[in-house]
Amino acid sequence: MTDFDRITTETWTIAFPSDWIDRSEGEDTLYFEAPAGDKGFYVSLWHMSDQELRGSRKLVETFQETEVPSFFPEGEAWNLICRTAEGDEISAVGFWEGINAESKYWICGKQLAAGKYVLRATFHDYDSYGQEASADFFSPIIGSLELRAA
């Protein structure tokens, strides 16, 4: 059984394997990577301005409109497996997932929005043995990601 560490801030939390290494290069986005370098995840928190009028679901959808094309460029062998956004003006959750079987690269993103915050994370398997294997491996990490403050 894998031991997990947890990062908890006043606004969000995530759990991940305890042997993963902090490879963050700045303060705005955290990046943790498996010791072998074959898996990793990024997490960033956005604090929207008081002038932001879009509700939580619209914010999630807007983040996805930017993220999905940047991670799945045309002309490459990417398969977008799913893309969802659920919620309302108060709180929302988004998720997308894709794989490039040729390069054995699986990636997914999760977005959480509430109040003036959007929490964005991407999960990367750089040596994927298929969608199911990657999704199963990352499931507890993705499931642990929570936005705690609205």
Named CATH topology: Protein Transport Mog1p, Chain A
Percent in strands: 35-45%
Q: Which residues sit in consecutive blocks of at least 5 with pLDDT less than 50? A: none
The strand line-up of the biggest sheet is 3-4-5-9-8-7-6
The profile of the biggest β sheet is: 7 strands, antiparallel
CATH superfamily: Mog1/PsbP, alpha/beta/alpha sandwich
Beta strand count? 10
CATH architecture, please?
3-Layer(aba) Sandwich
Shape: globular
Helix content: 10-25%
SSE string: EEEEEHEEEEHE
First-last Cα distance: 34 Å
- For the record, what CATH class applies? Alpha Beta
Report the radius of gyration as a whole number of Å: 15 Å
Category by helix and strand content = alpha+beta
Number of domains: 1
Can you give me a brief rundown of this structure?
The protein is of the alpha+beta class and 150 residues long. The protein has two helices and ten strands.
How would you describe what is shown here?
This protein has 150 residues and is an alpha+beta fold. It has one domain: Mog1/PsbP, alpha/beta/alpha sandwich (Protein Transport Mog1p, Chain A, 3-Layer(aba) Sandwich), CATH 3.40.1000.10. Helix content is 20%, strand content 45%. It has helices at 56-71, 131-144, and strands at 4-8, 12-17, 21-22, 29-33, 39-47, 79-87, 91-100, 105-114, 117-125, 146-147. The strands form 2 sheets. A 7-stranded antiparallel β-sheet has the order 3-4-5-9-8-7-6. The longest helix has 16 residues, at 56-71. The mean pLDDT is 93.
